[in-house]
Amino acid sequence: MCDTHETVEEYREGYPRYTALLSAHKPFFVCRPFNKLRARLLLLKQDRLDVLEKQLEEIDNQEPAPLFLGKSRFDRNEARKKVLSEIEVCLEEYDRYLERTNRVLSLCPAQERDVHSLRNWVNGTGSLAREETAYLSSRELVSLAPLGDNATVKLEAWVENLFIKFYRGFRTSKSHDLSNDPNVFIDSGPLVQRTSRALLLFLITLLLLMPVVICSTTDSNWIRIVIVLTFTVCYLLIVSVLTQSRTMELILAGSTYVDSSYYSGKAIWLTLGCRYATVLTVFVSGTPQITS
Known about the structure:
Layout (H helix, E strand, L loop, with lengths): L14 H10 L5 E2 L3 H27 L4 H5 L7 H28 L2 E2 L2 H14 L16 E2 L6 H17 L24 H25 L5 H23 L3 H7 L13 H25 L1
């Protein structure tokens, strides 16, 4: 925590303590994007430009001097100049609004786990008015915090829940020194992250080596093909669920080649998927030659 305060509870009840809680955990920065209001304003700005466009076309069609339409330097039509100036102002404002709306719509949805935690804290403390925390019940909440790898986030949440439920020492560790409330768990230590990464590496290793071990116990090519297909499908299902991959990314994950531009975020999963299919295919096709 910043300032002279070390825990959330050292701040006064109300907004001081609530904002201290939000600042202690970045994913707690959730808010409403007000998509309906943005759509309303967008339609109004769009319609205003549409009206101006029709006015300009009408002025051009009624222009008595063709020279003014062919050479703007000689244009003396004040009505056209006025409409063009208004169009420029409205277009500039319209473009800025489009850019702002695009940035807001690009924000990631808030994680239900974080929203649920904030609701529990607000309901448990009762230090804020219900009307001013009603936004937590909205269905259109977005997160201002950068979203990490989806697989890692889900796995860390699962590991943290297990620690809270079964590991008593986890509640009293130094990584939970941001709050004195026994019902509040704001982890700031590396234990959860390291455990999650270890489990993830174990899962990847298991998916990579298990089919190789199973295939080495049989001489039937058909059984090996079935094993390869089964584990490849399982791998792609895990990638699609945990990483929310797009169709093309899943195709790349099951192929033997991946472009260097994909080495971000899902790079580990995609690269291993490529190596996965390659290793299994080479193993199945090469084993009969080795045994012979």
